Amino acid sequence: MEEYLLLGIILDSFGLDGTVKILSKTQFGDKRYQKGNEVFLYNEKDNSRISAKVESYRHNGLFDYVKFNIINTKEEVENYRHFEVQVIKDSKDLKKGEYFFADLKNCEVYDENNNLLGKVKEVEEFPAQITLRVKRENGKDFLVPFVKFFIKNIDIENKKITINVIEGML
Asked: Right CATH number for 101-163 from 2.115.10.20, 2.30.29.30, 2.30.30.240, 3.40.50.2000?
C-alpha cells in the first residue's frame, strides 16, 4: 500500500486561471512542484484522490501558489478547497540524517536517561528552525528545536527519539 506525504492544504483561488493558494506543509516546494510533476489532491471527506500535474509554482511566506492542469478557472478552485495536496512517499529522496515530517509524528520522545516524556504531536516550521511539538500524557505540550544540540538520536523504525532536556524545557 502506498504512503503519501502532505505538501499543503488548498485554501483558495489566486487569480482567474485556476491557480490555487496552498498553506505549505513542505520544505521542498521547489522540488515537489516542478513543472510536470504529478501530485494528488486528496479529499478527506470521501477519502478520494485525484491525480494532477503541476503547470507552474511560486512560493511566498507560508504559502505556495500552484497551477494544476485539472483546475482552469477561479470557480473550479471551489471544488478543491480544503483538499490536501500530497505526493507518494519515496525514501530515496532523503539524504542521510533527513526525515519526512510524517515519520517523526507519533514517535515517542525520551530523555537521555530513557524516561518517556511524550509523543511527537506535530512538526512545526518556524522562521528560525523546525520544532517538534511533544504531547505529554499528563501536562501541556512542550517544544523541542530540531537541532543537534537537542536531538540526540532518532530511530524511525522503532518510533523513538532521544533528546537533551534543558532547564525550563518541560
From this structure: 2.30.30.240
